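User: I'm new to structure prediction. If I give you an amino acid sequence, what do you actually give back? Let's try with this one:
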Amino acid sequence: MDTYRPFLHNSYQQGDIIIGGITSQVYSVADTVSFREHPTVELTENPIAVLKNYQHALALEFAVKEINQHPKILPNITLGFHIYDSFDNARTTHESTLRMLSTRHRFIPNYSCGIQSNLISIIGGLSSQTSFYMSTILGIYKIPQLTYGSFISMLNEKREFSSLYWMIPNETHQYKGIASLLQHFRWTWVGLAALEDDNGETFLQMLISIISQNSICVAFAQRIFQSSNIIDYTSMIEKWYEVYIVLIPSKANAIVVHGDPQCMLSLRWVLYTGEVESSTKTLGKVWIVAAQWDFSSVTYQKGLDIQVFYGTFAFPVQTKEILGFRYFLQNRNPSVTQGDGFIQHFWQQAFECSFPNSDAGTTGEKMCTLEEKLESLPGPLFEMSMTSHSYSIYNAAYAVAHALHAMDASRAMHRVMPNEGRLHSWQLHPFLRSISFNNSAGDTVSFDENGELTTGFDITNLVTFPNNSFARLKVGRLNPQAPAGKDFTIKDDKIFWHRSFNQVLPLSLCNENCLPGFRRKKKEGEPFCCYDCYPCPEGEISSQNDMDFCIKCPEDHYPNMDQDKCVLKVVTYLSYKDILGASLAFSSIALCLVTTLILRMFVKHRNTPIVKANNRNLTFTLLISLLLCFLCPLLFIGQPQKMTCHLRQTAFGIAFSVALSCVLAKTIIVVLAFMATKPGSWVRKWVGKRLTYTIIFSCSFIQLGISALWLGTSPPFPHLDLHSLSEEIIMECNEGSILMFYIALGYLGFLAILSFIVAFLARKLPDTFNEAKFITFSMLVFCCVWLTFVPTYLSTKGKYMVAVEIFSILASSTGLLCCIFFPKCYIIILRREMNTRERLTTRRIV
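Assistant: Good question. You get back a string of structure tokens that encode the predicted 3D arrangement of the chain. For your 846 residues, that looks like this:
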């Protein structure tokens, strides 16, 4: 089995003061300690290089080079650096940290012998575990540690942070940013995936708490195991597939992933294994990566398709382009570097070539020509632009330099170095905590009271290409220092979605949205984001998706057909412009004209026997009252006004009471006239005009009294009825007192029934001067009309209710006119020979 010597894998540059660095460029698995033999420092298996992380060491070297060339920062002091690889392994990380504290080339911590380096601080590490392993040692010596990776959830007590500085903002801000992103795109059904460690558990607990407060549900919370923890390859494949069948088939299209950079390697194998095992192509998902996760590949993964990550959102620390860094990388070559123990192994892994007499293991048969260029490498292997991790390392080096410069300016350094020749790193803490400066890109670098960098996060969108290269697009920003409401910004028009979504905003919901017009109801036994959709009740609307409650429209509005908005109700009344109103008005006027013609005819033939029979004056009074009855409907048509409301019912009631009084008087006169013809009858003295006028006056006066009482107590008034019809506002005359309305109507019914009874009893009297049969028919029509009117009137609304009353007035009045007067008109016009006293006394009136 191949072995690898990790402590030959380092980079060094001499200086008056040394900045240490712990990077994670190689991943490997160490032998299990058996306690049967002295543990070796060699790592079993050929180590796997994460080539992109080589830039981290170069970023520190580049920063130190810039600082040494800067005329105003530490002008009399030269900085150096010493960088080790942690191998992402606890044993190696501890040993690398201890070697930092030893004399170079001799592993004897706390022993000064020969040339001792002036170590001032250490920058590292990338993963939270590496940072934790380092802090357990550096915290003892009070050596400032500037970590550029993830937060360390294991350090939960403030006293353990005394020597630790984070070159990233607190991850809580990032969790709030993720919740804002989910809210912005209305993704309420999301999946969570995290490494199976303490940091992963902290992430799940905190993010679930935050997103739940924002009405977002968790579809699943999946743990991703570290592939290095499983030796059996078959078990590894099975576990990867178990994770795959949770992540991909879920209806959650948005998946938030948290982990260290190595988590990307495991996730790519999860997706690759799932595709192989299921023989299906991975469906499009929106990946949202949290913490300091970088999109990287190892050499043997570079053939894996990365299109599944198209459209991924990431939250790296806010970065800007550093001038000169790309040129620095372009000129990087094993032939021109000294003290770089990383480059040879990197070069062989990156370009799949080998150097003569190399003991780092070859990855290809061809020899390295040293003409290879870093810019030719694909993005997942190596990037030419500075990554967020490298940017943090660059700022960390400058933070140490500015703190040293401040210390030098305070002359504290000069009081120590001449005597001992060595600077104590713990003396840097007061200056490092209060440091604040602008880097070469213009960003402000400073720490808060917890030792966390006061900066924000970029929101980047990953665009991948068929050749497995990619580009990061900045589409937004998360600025925790900004006022509430302005701390999260994103530009939707710059976002690229996974190709399976056809560049349409994807949905991530437990079920389809409840569209406007529906309300949602929670499904029993399921999270609150899962619900059924029910139509809004009648009269209510919902104007947005996923409303919990439907709302009622204002009184002057009504729901449209889809029940998603309120429409202004139309004010309606029986108008002359309506066909119905115009027809009724025309009928009313036409019948008035007919009545007028009949009246004129009777006046013209007033001296004929047919007119003089049964009291000529009474006939004229009846015709005039019918004429007024036909005019009454005109008060009901048109926009209701206060005056018309007062007049319509009272005028109709009084006119009809006069007409019915005349009919009653006619009927009574017929009966009394027959009785008066008998010898010695006492009725003779009652027959005459006085009785007729008494009947008309008394009956009409009662109706007049009812109308006066009605107007004096609770008169009708104009009213807007907002509730009777769902889509219309009825402008009507409110009757004021419904009781008085029915009393007035009932009194007319009483007169009609009384007239009907008297006429019915007198129908078989001798025909001479007898109108009883015609009055009987007219009262029968009258009663039928008004008996039908009551239920019809109560069952209609709006202008149709008014139309029913007008029709009843016209129909009952027409019945009186036709039954009583048409037979006489027939004789006057067509049978004039019958209009003589002799014929009327010997024959029936036809």
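You can read the tokens as a compact description of the fold. Here is one thing that stands out. Confidence is low (pLDDT under 50) at residues 416-421.
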